[in-house]
Design goal:
Shape of chain A: globular
Largest interface: A-B, 28 and 26 residues
Oligomer: heterodimer
Radius of gyration of chain A: 22 Å
Strand content of chain B: over 45%
Number of helices of chain B: 0
Order of helices and strands of chain A: HEHHHHHHHHHHEEHHHHHHHH
Number of helices of chain A: 19
Structural class of chain B: mainly beta
Helix content of chain B: under 10%
Largest sheet of chain B: 5 strands, mixed
CATH topology of chain B: Immunoglobulin-like
CATH architecture of chain B: Sandwich
CATH superfamily of chain B: Cupredoxins -  blue copper proteins
Number of strands of chain B: 7
Amino acid sequence: MLVPMHGVGGAQDLPIPASFAIAGAGAALVISFGVLAVAWRQPRFAGATAGTPLPAALAKVIQGRGLGLVARLLGLAFFAYLAWITIWGPDLVVNPVFGIVYVLLWVGLVPASLLLGPVWKTMSPLRTIYAAIEKAAGPHGRNGLYELPDRVGYWPAAFGLFAFVWLELVHDRATYIGSVQLFLALYLVYVLLGAVFFGEKWFARADPFEVYSTLIAQLSPIGRRSDGRLAWQSPLHHLDAFNPSPSRVAVIAVLLGSTAYDSFSRSSHWVRLSQAVPMDYTLLGTLTLLAFCAFVGVTFSAGAMLTPTPKGIRRAQLPALFAHSVVPIIVGYVIAHYLTLLAEYGQQVLIYMSDPMVNGSNLFGTAEWEVNYFLSREPATVALIKVLAVLGGHVLGVVAAHDRAVRLLPREHRISGQLGLLVVMVTYTVGGLFLLFSG
Amino acid sequence: MTPKGDRIDAKVGEPVTFIVQSDRAGGLHVHSSPEQTPEFVKGMSILEVVIDRPGLVEVEEHESGALIVQLEVR
């Protein structure tokens, strides 16, 4: 018998019905211009000062050594398990390493960070290893050998994120153990060696998983106010405290562009395109992925800059100052594209995890489970969730951008100055719905 | 190899029949969940596949990984 050796996930979601896509696109248009017409004229979100402080006891637990230690130990256990199955596990589809990296880690990072905050920063086994190196090096090894220049920003992470999505979405051997071994080895060296050179700051700027998780955590319910206290914050207040940096525009461009590319590259459009263009499949995929990311980066920057510039701000700074408004749009896209994968294939990964060496063991007691395909059985419900997720992300994005615009833009241009970005956001949403419909 | 990724409608629980004409023995890789791998022989083979849940299912030639059809199962 032939055994499927490679590949992640089985059946994909059906395309959403045309009526859903049209209704969603219409709603996006109406809501967008509605927000513009009737919404507040004075800024309301203040991430740095908003929110009710957490009860002292809860804040103490969250910031305490105990919880931090537990998170670090969990991170190390995860690292050890992943290293074990990556180095010694079989090159077969039943090796859980593929599902862990591409589904549980990459997709699961989004809901985990939404609910719990910057989980990867808290758990990161690489930060733990670095802390050990730093301790061993003594007082001279602290904070790296060189100062990381500010202009580097988040570019190292944008590069790392692009490398990861390229491996996942373009590389034809993404689900072969050799590719994953090589990627994880390079990731380890890139992040740890960078930290040795540039100190702890490197993690927040270069580790793709940490930068992704921290970005999404900007919508989580607990934020830190400028007075240092942890506070319950509504997602839009918390989002407002986003640290703007031009390179973070590149990060959001890679995240949103690659998710759209993933949808496109599974569609019949892609099948036709790749057969019509006489070019190496991998090269065409690489160029198309780059084009999707560049499209987001360029259109977003252009949309944000298409306004009279307020006093004291250079036009080139505007994209960074509005970049936070794309975060909810990314979350909406991720839910729409990966919900079924995470909920159903995620179960399959948990099953594989109990027997990674395929020798009949049942490490976590999940080996006998069976996958419950509760979502695939209800394609209409899934389609509805997708449209609502994309729309919800869009609304939060538009509202966040509106609030920033009334804070920053000169009074007489507060409304007209938003039009460029609004058109861009509607484009992302209608485009996303189109990909979901025509997939 | 033809077809090259055509979209085909199918019904949940009803068999989809593949009539395969090949110059070598091999197999199909049906990306349903769980996956299915019916095999064909050199010459003509008739294969039947049943998909038991709605979804978009890619069918590839096993060895080359080339996409043959996408089944839109409703």
